[in-house]
Structures are given as structure tokens and as C-alpha cells.
Design goal:
Elements (H helix, E strand, L loop, with lengths): L1 H33 L10 E8 L10 E4 L2 E11 L6 E8 L10 E6 L6 E6 L11 E2 L2 E3 L4 H11 L5 H16 L11
Length: 186
């Protein structure tokens, strides 16, 4: 029976080890599929530029999407020393060369806490972007800290000014004389 328990223990250890390896393989697969290194093979491309006052956590090689479809990636991120804003160069696949030149670019977040990407909202112009074109309309990244700060500041039911004026109104009501009741004679 001693040999029997050793064989069972060994097979249990092998099964546990295999299960752990399978778990690590699944995690590695998910990590590569959910980041910006996801399978996107880009052929010939052209470059578009966009300026943002705040790019948040946008990274190089982040996706550029139009209607949810990946059409390119972020090629470079630089700070413009004169305007002090972020100049982003987007590498867009030449297959998608029919983006109207009045389209808007915005920075969005995948899910609640996912990676950020550049979303293109198409315009209605008959003219299309050429290589080196620049987005005129851009929307910067919304920072979670800013949203929480705005909620905390504006979330109170009364403003401080309302609280200051409330005692004055109460005092005015108390100070105002009440008119005497009319005498009614039958």
C-alpha cells in the first residue's frame, strides 16, 4: 500500500503542476490580447496629427479606432514647447484613406480602467485627410481625479453663498411686522 500512495501522490503533484502551468498560459494569452500589442498588422500607412491639452495615460502603439474598428496606432507623442500641448502622430492604414478632413479625434478609455485609445468621429466633409493632415477638433482625456473633484465640489445640496444669505432672510421675516387682523362685526 505504501507504493500505491506514492503513485497517487506523484500523479496528484503532476496534475497540480499541469493545472498551474495552464493557468499561467491563460494569463499570458489574456495579457497580450487586452493590451495594445494585440494582433494588428499594419501595411502601408499615412500620418495624421492631433493636438490635445491632456492625453492622460495614452501610450505609444495605442489603437486608433473609427466606429470601434482599429484603423491604426499612435506613432509618436511629443510636447510642443511653444503651445505647451501634446502633439500626437497617428499612423493610419492606407486601406482607410477615406476619413473626412473635418473629423474629430478624442481620447477614450476601454472599459472602466482599461487602456486609452484615440477614437475618430467622422465628419461630413467631401474632402478626405491627406498624409500629414491635422485634426482641428479634438477632445482631451477625461481624468478620473477631475471628475471626482467636480462631484465633491458640486455635489453638496447648498452652495456656501446660499447658507450665508439664509440667516438674513430669516431675520427679515422676523423683523417685518405682521398686519393686524381685521375686525369683523356682525
Amino acid at each position: 500500500t505504501g507504493r500505491n500512495t506514492m503513485t497517487q501522490r506523484r500523479s496528484y503533484q503532476i496534475g497540480t503542476g499541469f493545472f498551474i502551468l495552464l493557468g499561467f498560459a491563460a494569463l499570458a494569452y489574456l495579457a497580450t490580447q487586452t493590451t495594445s500589442v494585440a494582433n494588428f498588422r499594419q501595411g502601408d500607412s499615412y500620418t495624421l496629427k492631433a493636438r490635445f491639452t491632456n492625453i492622460g495615460q495614452l501610450k505609444l502603439r495605442a489603437p486608433v479606432k473609427l466606429a470601434g474598428v482599429r484603423i491604426g496606432s499612435v506613432e509618436s507623442i511629443e510636447l510642443d514647447p511653444t503651445k505647451l500641448d501634446a502633439l500626437i502622430k497617428l499612423s493610419v492604414d492606407k486601406r482607410y484613406n477615406d476619413v473626412p478632413d473635418d473629423s474629430a479625434a478624442a481620447i477614450f478609455t476601454s472599459g472602466l480602467l482599461g487602456d486609452q485609445y484615440v477614437g475618430v468621429q467622422p465628419g461630413g466633409s467631401p474632402d478626405m485627410f491627406k498624409d500629414g493632415g491635422e485634426f482641428v477638433l479634438t477632445q482631451s482625456s477625461m481624468q478620473l481625479e477631475d471628475l471626482i473633484g467636480k462631484f465633491l465640489v458640486n455635489g453638496s445640496p447648498q452652495k456656501p453663498a446660499d447658507k450665508a444669505s439664509a440667516p438674513d432672510e430669516a431675520a427679515a421675516k422676523v423683523a417685518a411686522p405682521t398686519p393686524p387682523a381685521p375686525d369683523i362685526k356682525h
